[in-house]
Amino acid sequence: MGYEIDFLGVGEESKSGDAIALRYGNLYGTREEQTVVVIDGGFKDTGSSLVEHIKNHYGTSEVDLVINTHPDLDHINGLETVLNELDVKELWIHKPWEHNQGLADKFKDGRVTDNSIGERLKENLEKAWSLVKLAEAKGIRVQEPFTGLADAGGGIKILGPSVEFYESLIPDFEGMPEKAALTNMLESAFNKAASALRRFFVSWGEDKIDDSGETSPRNNSSVITQLLVDERRSLFTGDAGIKALEYAADQLEQSGQTADLRFIQIPHHGSKRNIGKTVLNRLVGEPVPEGESRGITAIASTAKGAEPKHPRKAVMNAFTHRGVKVLATRGTGIHHYHNAPNRAGWNSLDPEPYHYGYEDEAA
């Protein structure tokens, strides 16, 4: 058994996105011995790149499973092309408009009803709604990816979110009425606000991340996916924040799972607001002496011109001094694998160096 994990390059300029193709099973055998999965599709034009990548490198036009982590456009837009141009068997995607029971009570406006909230969610998340309709029209099985859901191949399992946690986030999704709308307007303004750059100097093992980071409710609704092959564990985090990652860590600890972590996606393109010291210690481990390795690879999916926002050097350092080989796509593809055939033209990458001095936003 083996696996290949491919992060496609997304974002020529400054807007980062996620598009991941993977396959696992007997990669030296027939297609029937393998499971092909897509996690997110990047922007609209990324869909064609995913289709060509799967055909060229996996030798198939059949995809067993497509997972949309959350409905942000840099994750969902390319999936329409994937569903249209490949033979997709199953789609895992959240349908928040079906979780509208009792939501009207969350808002002050007495004219709001559960039904109107459901319709508003369809309108606000039109790309997700239309993707579900497309899948249904094509006879593709659609399931919502909540904790515990596993694929037919047995390697993929959802660690989060739970139904309860997901439903607690919906009232604060961007575009919802009353208080939630105000909250998200303020948050959006904060995200777009430019902050002056300053120079930071750090020593080995000095964390410049903390546990107070906050991300949007929609980011925290991201699907957190585990791939388990040959007692090797890989984690895909989407744009999940600290609260969502803490829940996933709880699931791993409660399961008593002994498989070693070998790969982790750095959440939200390496944003500083999505990862903290405590949850990183739980998922990866405590900091190690300089030069020591845990045999774990971490990848941040970032646009070519996204720095210093994506990835934050403080985040890359935090993974590095925990013994992790850290990489960033910076608009190009990265191939991570175990027990897989050699791929012509793809070369080994040097890990991100530890940044003892770097520029970052002061805020």
TrEMBL record:
What SUPFAM superfamilies is this protein classified in? Answer: Metallo-hydrolase/oxidoreductase
N-terminal signal peptide:
none
Sequence ranges assigned to domain Metallo-beta-lactamase in this UniProt record: 32-108
- Write one Pfam family the protein is assigned to: Lactamase_B
Question: Can you say what this protein is called?
Answer: Metallo-beta-lactamase superfamily protein
What is the scientific name of the source organism?
Vibrio xiamenensis
The lineage, from the top, is: Bacteria, Pseudomonadati, Pseudomonadota, Gammaproteobacteria, Vibrionales
